[in-house]
Amino acid sequence: MCYSVSSLTKARLDYARHRTDDQSLIAALEKELGELLRNEPPLGWVSGFAHPRLLVFTQDEPMKPRLFRWGLIPSWVRDREQASQLAKQTLNARSESLWEKPSFRESAKSQRCLVVVDAFYEYHHQGKAKFLHRMHRADAQPLCLAGLYAVWGATPTGIPYHGCSIVTTEANPAMALVHNQSKSKESRMPVILDSTHLGLWLAPDAGSADLQPCFRPASTETLRYEAVQTSDTSTPCSEIPPIIQPPELWILRQEIESVLIGSPYARP
User: Fold this and answer.
1) How distant is the alpha carbon of residue 179 from its chain centre?
2) Count of Cβ atoms closer than 10 Å to residue 3 Cβ
3) Which listed CATH number (3.40.50.620, 3.40.50.300, 3.30.420.40, 3.90.1680.10) goes with 4-262?
4) Domain ranges of the chain
5) Which residue has the higher pLDDT, 134 or 27?
6) Are the CB atoms for 189 and 171 separated by under 8 Å?
7) Given CA atoms 10, 13, 14, 15 in this order, what sign does their dihedral have?
8) Fewer CB atoms < 10 Å away: N or C end of the chain?
9) Tens of pLDDT along 83-103?
10) What integer pLDDT is reported at residue 191 of this predicted model?
11) Alpha-carbon distance 191 to 189, whole Å?
């Protein structure tokens, strides 16, 4: 699954260059991003259960940056207790059941979004020990993750709550080695959208069948898989956790390297 991410200034600003070649539009978007994020702290590592604000771009305004809380609350929720519980359960949305789950089906139809981050994190388990891993793009570009959003208006203050969820799919071979233990008994990873699928995911007329190509797991060579120093997951960290190379992970490192070398996408 995906329960923690990194969202730093670089990924937030690089999105402008990622979406268009129009220099005037890039300049305008970068200015708008700068103003939006002026008082927003960078997140080197933050747990989804802290419900941080993540940078998103929605279907209806695909070039307008927004900050939505991680944790989707459907519009039909009526009380605070149910809202609080659902926000914890909707950090992720399985791609295989988006159109069946009551919490996600309306958002899947017309409230899709991009969630822009630097990296995401997962634990690798060995016996009773676990080792945090950071996954980021090998080319240092931002990760554009498939997301859903919803607006909950029945808040105690009357101010609408904008929340989002990150869509997940089956893990690629390298990710399956890292994410080797989960409650669902299967390895998962976020849906990472490449340049050919960004527009499709945000297309207003795209239906379930149209969007299936978006859910293919990212190729193994797209990402780097690095063990990092664990810190307190309950406290957002402004710095990226440092890379570590514990001796317990040498076999895993060899297995990941073998998968990368054997990938049909691997560079010569």
Assistant:
1) 15
2) 16
3) 3.90.1680.10
4) 4-262
5) 134
6) yes
7) positive
8) C
9) 999 999 999 999 999 999 999
10) 98
11) 7
Give the mean pLDDT of 196-223.
95
Lowest mean pLDDT among 88-92, 152-156, 223-227: 152-156
Single-letter code of the amino acid located at 184: S
Q: Find residue 43's DSSP bridge partners.
A: 7
